[in-house]
Amino acid sequence: MEPHVSDHVRIFDTTLRDGEQAPGCTMTKEEKLEVARQLSRLGVDIIEAGFPAASPGDWDAVNAIAHEVGTADGPMICGLARANKDDIDKCWTAIEPAAKKRIHTFMSTSDIHLEHQFRKSRGEALELIGEMVSYARSLCDDVEFSPMDAGRSDPKFLYEVLKVAVECGATTLNIPDTVGYTTPEEYYAMIDGIRRNVPGADKVIISTHCHDDLGMAVANSLAGVRAGARQIECTINGIGERAGNASLEEVVMALHTRQQFFGIETKINTRELARASRLVSACTGVHVPPNKAIVGANAFAHESGIHQDGVLKNRQTYEIMSAETVGLDGNALVLGKHSGRHAFRKHLEGLGYHLNDDEFRHVFTRFKELADKKKLVDDRDLEALIAGEAQRTVAIYTLDYVQVFCGTDVIPTATVRMRGPGEETFTESAQGTGPVDAVCQAINKIVGEPGELVEFAVNAITEGINATAEVTIRVQEYGTRAAESEGGKPERGRQPRVFSGYGVNTDTVVAAGEAYVGALNKLFYARQERQRSRTQPESPLEAVDLFGNSMLGKGD
């Protein structure tokens, strides 16, 4: 049976590449590894682990994922590369350790991109595509090619480009709706036209990659599947450039819930969807809206009396799927402050987490501290602790102690103690407009105020007065304050970079301090990466991502 008529659609997750390119969604290497492990548990077919040529840090993360997650029974590991040999070489060396690997290369095909961005004729683009797809195929048996801005490309030229890509060895043709412009009817017609007019299209996988600028990314992806596409490129929580990508949990559950309509299956373990959503939210600092389909807090909540009455009688009256199906059952942890290490480790392994000794020791200590303050610790608390552990690995500074004095008619004052590089200890006090501001001001006295706090969000992980608080803080490196340490002005073409930090504690103020330090650690780490990347030779093409956005200052 040819690939395009199979009853299985591949799920290609690009959370770690396209998703991470969204402003403020930068992740550390350890956070990327933790997300990749969860994607493997989720059962995705392909993980696009990053853009290896973007920076040494991105290459390191992709290579680490290929080593650890790219096992024979795990997902295929893919890397993105522009249509030049330097990018393709870096991509290949990064993904080479994986048992199953793919090079994903791309080139624009719309006239507006070719004329204004790449300054190439159609003939020059065709020649480059043929040469670079052939080169990628000489290194790797699995090669994906994407005609950037396919949705606004001339169909006849698009067919010609894809014909060349197939002839030169592409095994997957990805059709990006780069700017989220098409409608489901148009996207269906585009995929159907490719199947009918591109020689060899029946011998390769056709893939969708849809953006959500007009809110139709999921609908377009599903339309593509109905037209014969057998791979969907998507991200957890729909994160990505601008308005984001097609949401993995939405396309998966649409195919799962409406299986009789679509006649298509995935290999996704749907019970891992909620955990994947929470992990990505914690690592990126991007909260899931309550009304978000599938994984939002209100997705299975009912307030209307009529709805409540129906659900009490039969849940199917107002629920087309069960919360348990997507992993939202929230099982309570039957362990308390007297529980031992062995039982705790077994429970974590049952949840799919395999921590090394140092990670386990730290999480177990945090669990004991939490169990002393709460009578009931459930799996959501544990997932939050583990998400915080992934962030702790970039520990340039560590928060050891927080004391706050505040109240009515009192100037909020905070004292903090931190450990810095070389384990040196620093203690500072500061005043602020409130307890959180006072803590941040005291931290700034130690680290030197490297950026401005642009977002502060608090969320209760669990219910009740003693609920564990998770705090997300986002710090902007460039903005109203220029980075004096790097010349006083943002570099040309660089957008302000935003770094998120995550903290979890029953004390909201302490959680805020942890989150702020976490964001600052990411900022300092990114600066170190930039210094490293400046010693690397420049790529022969201007840096652009898959969707035409400037990569100057992105991921470097």
Summarize the structure.
Helix content is 39%, strand content 17%. The protein has 556 residues and is α/β, with parallel strands linked by helices.
Give an overview of the whole structure.
By secondary structure, this protein is an alpha/beta fold. The protein folds into 4 domains: 282 residues, TIM Barrel, CATH 3.20.20; 30 residues, no CATH class; 37 residues; 139 residues, Alpha-isopropylmalate synthase LeuA, regulatory domain (Double Stranded RNA Binding Domain, 2-Layer Sandwich). Helices cover 39% and strands 17% of the residues. It is built from 17 helices and 14 strands. The strands form 3 sheets. The protein has an 8-stranded parallel barrel, surrounded by 9 helices. A 3-stranded antiparallel beta sheet has the order 9-10-11. Strand 6, helix 7 and strand 7 form a beta-alpha-beta unit. The longest helix has 26 residues. The protein is globular and about 75 Å long. The two termini are 44 Å apart.
Report the CATH superfamily of the largest domain.
Aldolase class I
Structural class: alpha/beta
Rg, alpha carbons: 24 Å
State the name of the first-level CATH class of the largest domain. Alpha Beta
Judging by the overall fold, what is the CATH architecture of the largest domain? Alpha-Beta Barrel
CATH topology of the largest domain: TIM Barrel
Q: How are the strands of the largest sheet arranged?
A: 1-2-3-4-5-6-7-8
* Mean pLDDT, all residues: 85
Note the beta-strand portion. 15-25%
Say how many strands there are: 14
N-to-C CA distance = 44 Å
How many individual domains? 4
Q: Which segments are poorly predicted (pLDDT under 50) over 5 or more consecutive residues?
A: 479-493, 537-556
Number of helices, counting only DSSP H or I runs of 4 residues or more: 17
The backbone outline, from C-alpha atoms, is globular
Largest sheet: 8 strands, parallel, barrel
Helix coverage percent of residues? 25-40%
**What quaternary form is this?**
single chain
